[in-house]
Structures are given as structure tokens and as C-alpha cells.
Amino acid sequence: MKTAEELLVAIQAALPDARVELLLNPSVSAQHSIVVAPADALQVAVYLREVEGLDYCSNVTGVDWPGKEIAEKVKVTKLVAGVETEVEETVKRREPGCLEAVYHLFSMRNSKEGAQTPIVLRQRTGNRTDDVKVPSLTPVWRSADFQEREVFDLFGIVFEGHHDLRRLLMWDEFEDHPMRRDYVDPDDYEWEPTAHDEVLKRAQAQAAGVAE
Amino acid sequence: MAVEPKLNIELGKQGVFVTSFNELYNWGRKNSVWPMQFGLACCAIEMIATTMARYDLARFGAEVFRPSPRQADLMIISGTVTKKMAPQVVRLYNQMAEPRYVIAMGACAISGGPFKQGYNVLKGIDRYIPVDVHIPGCPPRPEALLHGFMELQKRIAAQPLTGEGRPRHLDEEGMAEFPVPVQGAHDLEPSANKLVWPLPAPPVAEAAPKTGAEG
Amino acid sequence: MTTSAEFKSFLPPVIEPDGDGSLLEVAMGPHHPSTHGVFRMDLELDGERVIKLKPVFGYLHRNHEKIGESTSYLGMMPFTDRLDYICPLTNNWAYALAVEKLTGTLVPERAEYIRVILAELTRIQNHASAIGFLIQEMGASGTPLMYAFREREKILDLFEWLTGARMMGNYMRFGGCRVDVSPEWIESAKKFVAGAPKFLDEFEALLGGNEILMARTQGMGILPADLAINAGITGPMLRAAGVNYDLRKVDHYGIYDRFSFRVPLGDHGDIYDRYMVRILEARESIKILEQALRDIPGGPIKDPKAPGRIFKPKPGEAYGRIEAPKGELGFYLISDGGASPYRYRVRPPSLINLTVLEDMCLGHNVADVVLIFGSVDIVLGEVDR
Amino acid sequence: MYFKKEVIFGNPMVSTSYLPLLVLFLAALGFGLAPLGLAWLWAHLVSPPKPNRIKNAIYECGLESRGDAWVQFRSAYYLYAIIFLIFDVEAIFLLPFAVAFTGLTAGACLSMLIFVLLLVEGLVWAWAKGVLTWS
Predict the structure, then answer these.
(1) Would an 8 Å CB–CB cutoff place B115 in contact with chain C?
(2) CA C190 and chain centroid, separation
(3) Domain limits, chain B
(4) Chains adjacent to D (≥3 CB pairs closer than 8 angstroms)
(5) What confidence score (pLDDT) does residue C17 get?
(6) Residue D14's pLDDT band (boundaries 50, 70, 90)?
(7) Are the beta carbons of C58 and B84 separated by less than 8 Å?
(8) Model confidence over A111-126: pLDDT tens digits?
(9) B124 or C6: which carries more pLDDT confidence?
(10) Which chain A residues in 72-101 lie under 8 Å from chain C, judged by CB atoms?
(11) Interhelix angle for B21-30 vs B142-157, to 10°?
(12) How many C-beta atoms lie closer than 10 Å to residue B186's C-beta?
């Protein structure tokens, strides 16, 4: 079973124009992943299944990376009291977030030698609002069928080429994507009979709102 | 109105058995409560275990689990009622024939239980339909379900036929229709049935939040 | 070269109604006696034949993963009991294994043995109840289920004695177990294991040679091996299709390498094969239990350095999986150094095994759809999470 | 002459009259209808009818039922129904024959045999035509 690094080299050899890079996993499990650009994800997937023998896509899931404010220390030469000096300055850089579809691949046919570490394939969308289209890998691995529908339902990643992309878990009239980090669920705690601390504050605010 | 117990026992010793029509009517209904086959989640497995040989719900005349709501008297809500399932639960309750009862089995059915923070979990089925017996536990043991069942039987036995405390199915103004909630864009609309689940007004903001809740 | 000629993609088939009647649209809905809970199938029937079958999920979607993102690592352990509520202890083990893979915690010998014993006991009671429910849906209302649940009660007594709860054990911790096993418990477990083959013989004598069962299940709901692999089917359904893929042998997790047991395989991939594979797997579990109970060592049950309540793993991600009675149960954890996982994903074998329900059921009668669905053996808590 | 007591009630010694049969029939009818009557009376007098739209809706697994059930079924079903009808009616005719079987003369047995054979011949034709095997 090839490791992620060897597979990366093999992919770049077989598909020179495929934009793939390695993402190291700092955890002890050392399950590194291959990030592939959505445009040629289908190509890479077909290669992995046909040539590399990864015929079993065990797990497909979505991860939401919201945009982050990164404060970076930047060396800036500035005029301070007429003297050119190097000054440490924190620059706020707004990193655009993205939605990610993660695929864990194994091989069932040749699964004899040794414990199997998953080959992790990642596709990232452009951003979290309008450019959320990613090619569906269901034609390559049928096991991604329901799981991609679930990722579409809970994260909002649109899988192009999926034969039946509907919401899997929430009801069809539901509009939000609840597993996103910035989802606020409806406040239907109301006030339990023994209202206390922040439920009490919410209840009083609601009651005050009703009172006007 | 009921026969005094002491007199009853004395007469019983002489071999004379006296009962009232009300006791006879309730005795018949109490001992043949047919539950509806309505398993939602983990509590359903404990409910099935209760009907099996070891705990044997049949001793109380309830081993016939009717799949159709038309032939069931009791709905045991065993498991988490999600917001996607809530309209179906309320519609099934409406479609059951009158004298119908509800047992909310398990913490999830009573108040959302461990999954209370879930966005798709209804915080308790009391918001839409009246519940007769609540059985706490996650899942409650089969003995707890049997005890809850006996509580329901006591409650049925105590229902008078006429007068003030008579059950819902015997009085004309009793509430018969429980509106089915609609699945909206973000949540169920309405989020609770105010007639069935009157919200206690919270203690007023400006006054020091007293423990008791007026209104 | 995206989808070249010989490249085969396994999309669900479409069949045409051959009769002259019009199609009846009916929902085998959330409240139905034979859907093992709140599962719905939208059927289009031509008379009795199924023309279209669209499963609908989500009626028990309890937001397990969203709650996971705001609860501590240890706090999620009782929630994993309620995923596949017929096999809570294997869920615990899968979650503990994933966290151990994330943090590299080691598990002492005795704890590994206890984990194997509890997992195999869970497998026996899961297969027994799965067959009991399947036969009940075939029409034998009650009797086989009574037999299966009688055995299940014995196993639940063992669980209750050890973990304190009949079903929801919340027993495993990262790096071991919560409570040690007493010698009396091991004795009564041995007594149960000694009696278990007699129950399986009785079960098989009652069902195995039964013509009605054979007539209704052989050749029904056939699942070809290559579709099974591509659709990610795991567990008894996959082995019934003839693919030798059992995580206990493939992944070498836990200490399964020390026990000699075989992996039963079917060759037709129909419902009868799945029934037989489950019975044979239960027999193999009994063999594992005999060996494990015989040479369980002494020693600690929890690695003292193992993470306790306040536990912040270093950033990183890990995907751990075990051979749960229903298939490959995996946990995918992404940690950002916080007290609760950044992303907490459960790979549900029941949901993924249902991917091919439509392929297996098209063209059969409605009564057979109930059987094919029963042979997949799903639990709604795990399907909808 | 026809209204004499014996004709209607018949003298008890010679049981030619049909009175016992009538009494038995009425008893059977009463035994069947009495509970229903009581239930109807009870429902009518004591428990008030409270129908509403949701309660009277068609039960379809908790959902609102879409589409209607009046669907043209395949022709194979009608053949099944007809064949069942024939052999069900035949069984009713066999009943009195089977009850009085011992006391019958050979001629009666012969005629009954012809009746049964006629229908068995119908069954053989249907079987040969392959109507009974489900496609």
C-alpha cells in the first residue's frame, strides 16, 4: 500500500497537469492527505481507482473552515523620528474560509499486507458563499452517494454530476446549512418552568418584547 | 358515588359482589389498553424488550401492538422526537380513536433529553400533544415502563363517567383537534401549541426575579 | 480520460413497468411496522412489483456531530452509546480507538482483552436480534424474536453487572476501560459462552432448514461483489457477497491476531447468505470468547498516563475504524488543540449499507422489499446520527 | 285450513315445522347484532362524536397521503379473483354433501362426483394455461 507521499508522486507522474499537493497531518496518526483542485478531482479519482486499486471509498465528509483574522508579525521599515528602523508590526490579514469535502480511500481487493492507513483526498471550494461547486465523485465510488448528499445538506457544498442531489437529513423546506460553524439554531428553548440565569434573561427579553 | 370499600368487602364475604357501572366501564378499558407500534429510538428497544418473555407486558393486557392508529388506545412515544418527525407524531395522535392516552417514554420524549442542544430535536412532545404519563430514564428500564403502565391504569380507573373530571372523550367541549405543526424555513411553525403547553410567563424583568412565576 | 469506455460507474438502475396498469405511489413511511424505526421509502408500484424506491432519512437526525463539536472528548462517550443503540459497546470502542489513534495512547493488555470480550458479546446479541427481526418480518410474528431476546437478556445482564446499565454502558475510556472485570463476572461469562452454541443450534434447527425461509430468501435481493465494493458495503452484507474483508483481520486492531477464528463468506449475496453469515459469525464470536475468557491476563485496565477528563489533544486529525456488527464503524476527528473536537464525524455503516437498497429491491414484490430491507440490518440512530 | 295451529306450530311430537330453526336463526342474529347495537347506542348516547379533518384523513404512515388509491390494476389480478370465486362457491356446495355423506345413495354420490370433476377440470385448464403462476 503506497503512502500519501508516494501516491502524490505517482499522480503527478501520471497526470502532469493535475494540481495536487500534500497536506501534512501533525497528529501521531500520520494520516497525510492529498489536496486536489476541484477542476481535476474526477481525473485523479478515476486514476486512483483504476490504476492504484483504491476501490473502496469508506468515508466522505465535509469540514467548514470559516475565514480567519490572522494577525501576523511583519517586519516593516518605517521612519521613526527621522531614523529608518525595522519595526515589528501586526498586520491583520483576513484569510478567506473554504468548505472542504474529505474522502477516505482504502483498497479492498489487495488488503492483505499490514494495517491500512487511509488515503485522504481533500477538495476545497473557492469560498463559503457563492463558489461552492465541487465535482461529485459518486460516478467513481458509489459509496459517496448518500454521504455527498449529507454534506450538501449540512454544509452546502454543491456536488456537480451527482445523480440525485437532495437534502438527506433535514426536511426539504429547510434553508440553512446547520453544520457550518456560523449557524445559529432557532431559539426554541423558551423558558423552562424554572427559568434560571441566561435562559431567564432570554425569557425576560422575549417577554419584554411581547409586552410592548 | 362509588361503593364504600368496607361495605364492599363485607358484602363480598357474604358472596354478594357489588360494583358500579363506572368501575365496570373503567375496569374493562384499563385491562385491555392496546399500544400503538411506535418505536422511535433506543427506548423502542427497551419497549420491545418489555414485551418479550422476561418482562412480559402481556400480563397487563397490552401485548397486542397495533401498527395502525385506528385500532390503538395508547401511544408510547419511545425515543427522540425530531422536528422532522413531529408533524407525523401529532398527525398520528389525531388519527387515533378517542379514549387515547400518551406515555412519553424516556428523557428525549419528555424534554429532548441528552440531545436537547440539537437543532433538529423537539424539546419534548408535550409542546403539541397532552401527555398522560412521563417515564424518566435514558432508556428507562423495562420495570420503569411497567410501572408507568400501571400508573396509566390507575389513572384510567379513576376517571369518572360524568361530571367535572370526566375524560376528554366524554365531554363535548373537550379538545379534539391538535393542529399539526408545519415545517418552515428554519424551524417548526408554530414552535409549540399554546393550548396544550401554556407557557408560564417568566418573572418580570425589572422586579427582582422572584422564584415563583406569576400568571 | 475522465470517464473512458471501460470505466464502470455503478449508478442505480432504472426499470420500466411492464404491466398495463398505472403506477401506485405509496410511502412506506416513517411510521411503519417493518422499517426498524422511523425510516421511509417512497415506492412506486406497478401492481406488486417495485418500479422505483427512494429512501428518505432524517427522521431521527439528532445532531450527534453538531453536539460533538461543543462537548468535551470524554463528554461524547455517552453519546456514542446512542448511535447504534443495539451495540453500544462497539461504538464506545470505535470512538476510543479513534482518539487513541489521534493522541497515540497505549492500552494495557487486560483492557484489550475486556474490549474484545465485550465486542464479541455485542456481536452475538446483535446478530441474534437481527435474525429475530428478519424472521419476524417474514411472518413468524414473535416466536424467533422471543428466542433471540431471551439470549440477549442474558448478555444484557452481563453488561449491566459490569457497566451498570443494560444497554448504555459508557464503559470504555481513552487508553482502557472504566471498571475492572471481577472473576465472578468472568465465570458467568464462561457459563453463558458454554451455553451459547446450544442456543445457535436450536435457532438454526428452528430456522435453517425451514422451507418457507429458504423459499422466500434464496435468490432474493442479490448483491454482486463488485457493486458491493464500489458502494462501500461493509460487514456481513459484504462478506455474504463473497468479498473477504473483515477489519479484524485487515486492520489488525486490538489483539484479534492472538485469536484463531475464521471469516465466513457467502457466494450468492442473497438474503439467505446474509442470514447464514450472521449465524456463522456468531459461532466464530463464541470461539473468540472462549479463547479470550480463558487467557485474560491480570494487570491494570487503564494506562495511568492516559488522558482523563480535561484533555486537549494536539492539533491534527485521525480516522479510526473497527469491525462493528453492522460493518465498518469509523470516527474521524479533527482536533485544533481545543477541549472539544473541531470536527467530529461518524462513518455510519448502516447508512452506507443502504446505498444499494434500491438496486437490490427493484423488480421485486413489496413483501420482498421488507425482507431485503430487514436483511441489511440497520439501526436508525446510526443511520441519521 | 292453513291457519290451524298444527300447520304453523306443528304438533311437537312430529317435528315437521320449522319453528326451532326460526328461533335458532333469530338467536344467532341477535347474538351477533346485540354487541354492535349496544356499542352504537353507547356511542350515540354517551360519547359525543368529535370528527375533524386530520382525524378523518387517510392514514399513510403518518404522512399526508398523495395520489389516490383508485389505480387500474394489472389484468392478472382479475383472473386470480375469478378463479378464487369459482372454487370458493364450490366449497359451499360441498358442505351439505360432506355433512350428509354417510346416509346418501350411490346415485347421489355419483352426481356429486360429476359436479366436483367438472370444477376440477376447470382448475386443470387454468393451471395448464399458466394463469396460476405469477409472472
Answers:
(1) yes
(2) 24
(3) 35-159+178-189
(4) B, C
(5) 80
(6) low
(7) yes
(8) 776 667 889 999 999 8
(9) B124
(10) none
(11) 160
(12) 16
Contact B89 D47 (CB under 8 A): no
- The DSSP secondary-structure symbol of B121 reads B
Q: Is C197 left (phi over 0), alpha (psi -120 to 50) or beta?
A: alpha
Higher pLDDT, C201 or C16: C201
**Which candidate, C346, C356, C347, C354, places its Cα nearest to that of C377?**
C354
Task: Write out the three cell numbers for D20.
Answer: 326451532
Specify the pLDDT at position A135: 94
Q: What is the pTM of this model?
A: 0.88
**Predicted local distance difference test score (pLDDT) of residue D52:** 87
> D43-54: b or e for each residue (b if 16 or more CB lie within 10 Å)?
eeeebeebeeeb
Rounded CA gap, B41 and B21, in Å? 40
CA distance D80 to chain C (A): 13
C-alpha–C-alpha distance, residues C307 and D97, integer Å: 85
Q: Rounded CA gap, B123 and B86, in Å?
A: 11
Task: Return the residue in C54, C63, C99, C345 with the most chain A beta carbons within 10 A, the one to mutate for interface testing.
Answer: C345
Amino acid letter for position A84 = E
What's the one-letter identity of residue A208? Answer: A
Asked if A139 has any chain C CB less than 8 Å from its own CB, the reply is yes
Q: Does domain B35-159+178-189 have CATH number 3.60.130.10?
A: no
Q: What is the DSSP secondary structure assignment for residue C87, as one 8-state letter?
A: S
- Tell me how far apart the terminal alpha carbons of chain C are, to the nearest angstrom: 38
Q: Which residue has the higher pLDDT, D134 or C149?
A: C149
For B63, nearest residue in chain C (alpha carbons)? C142
Which positions in chain B touch C62 (Cβ < 8 Å)?
Answer: 41, 80, 82, 115, 118, 120-121
Q: Minimal Cα–Cα distance from A134 to chain C, Å?
A: 15
Work out the average pLDDT over C291-318. 87
Please state, in angstroms and rounded to a whole number, the distance separating the CA atoms of residues A45 and C130.
36
Instruction: Give yes or no for B183 touching D (CB within 8 A).
Output: no
User: Is it the case that chain D and chain A have 3 or more CB pairs lying under 8 Å apart?
Assistant: no
Question: How many residues are given for chain D?
Answer: 135
